[in-house]
Each structure stands twice: as C-alpha cells, then as structure tokens.
Design brief:
Length: 120
C-alpha cells in the first residue's frame, strides 16, 4: 500500500473530481538520487519538472511534487503516477530501454552516439 495519500483538490469543468497525491520529496532529494545513479537530467523549476533521460537516451518528464510522469512527446495526453523518484527510476525509466536501443540500431545502423542525428 502506498504511503502517499490521494486528496481531493477540485472539480473540473466536466464535473469530475480531481485528486492529487504529493510525494513529499524535494527537488534536492530528486537531484541527489539521479546524480548517485549517474542518470542524465535537465531541470525546469518553473514547471516543477525534471526531464530525465533513459539508458536509450529517451526523455521522460517527471514532476517531483506529485510523481506524475510521461514520455516526452509533442502531445501530452496521458500521464502516469509513481510514488516518488526511486519508484519512477526503478520501475519505469528503463523498462523499455533495451527495445528502444534496438530500434535505434535498426533505424540508424550501428553508429556511435556522436554521429546520430535527430529526425525531429
């Protein structure tokens, strides 16, 4: 059972109840954890968001105040929940990394990381 508790926040324009679950973790705690694990990241403090990169160099948006996360895409239609930075990294961050690495090898060939170019 989760140590974090869901709390009612508001009702949205569709009449649906909106709940929130805070992690209780600070940005400092999250950054120390990521540094200890040698995981690359970028911080966007104004959005309480950390962009965290998987082993396959795929970016994920992680909101440290609530544990919400999503693969970084042009449209963010779906977010998922974790119980904190440790939970996110251990269960989700590299879950499909090997598949993504294989996809990249098939797409770009067997090239070194510096010569890979982005396709937008």
């Amino acid at each position: 059972m989760s140590k974090h508790k869901w709390e009612y926040v508001r009702t949205n324009s569709k009449g649906e109840a909106i709940f929130r679950k805070d992690t209780g973790q600070t940005l400092t705690h999250c950054l120390e954890y990521l540094k200890d694990k040698s995981i690359e990241y970028e911080v966007i403090e104004s959005a309480t968001m950390i962009i965290i990169y998987s082993k396959a160099d795929r970016p994920y948006m992680y909101y440290w105040t609530t544990g919400r996360w999503s693969p970084r895409k042009r449209r963010y239609t779906k977010h998922f929940h974790s119980d904190g930075i440790e939970d996110f990294v251990e269960k989700y961050l590299n879950k499909y990394a090997e598949e993504h690495i294989q996809e990249d090898k098939e797409r770009y060939g067997d090239v070194d990381e510096d010569s890979k170019t982005s396709c937008g």
